[in-house]
């Protein structure tokens, strides 16, 4: 998937648009999505989908797959948000709390414990889901429309320390080395009849991880020698030019959209809609 992300980031229709402008738009919407009310967050999601799918031309199926993969982590946290356990003896007292009483749906009732879901828990889960989705859409817009080297240029423009940029660059490079080496080892195991059956699969996976470390270190030494042969002195300097071109229609739509979203949020916050 990381290769697909890199390929889309380098070939989409917004690749030539200023990375600084796209980063500013994504950051502004991310902050708005974090602080705004639900309806505004929903508008942020729809607007980011328009930028990513329509303007940049990212394949919808791949985008949905990426979004669904990220939502798996949210789904894993749902039990902690929704399900509550209380001793059965204290349950009637909680229901007699008058004003504190809330909607409650019992999932499992045991002699000593009761498992249930509350209305407040559902509301919290829905609020978090909307906020998470809006934030993901902002990040995916930047990630899928801007090649990683241009993001490093943005960080350099923002005066991020050079050491941090170099570490990010080396880590980015090693992600590809790691996935390529893992794929080669997996293919070799499959060719020898491995990765079949549960027990054999566990053994082969453990062997793959062990060999992966050795192979990666070999590739690391090769990369270090390659850098040294090209005159590496401890500093990896990115390109100094950062594109600042923004099509006028994108600039107009960006400012108009931000103004509308801020107006809607102000209306909800101070107009009695909250």
From TrEMBL:
It is a multi-pass membrane protein. The keyword Transmembrane applies. It is found in: Cell membrane. Keywords: Cell membrane, Membrane, Transmembrane, Transmembrane helix. GO terms for cellular component: ATP-binding cassette (ABC) transporter complex. NCBIfam families: ECF_T_CbiQ. This is Cobalt transport protein.
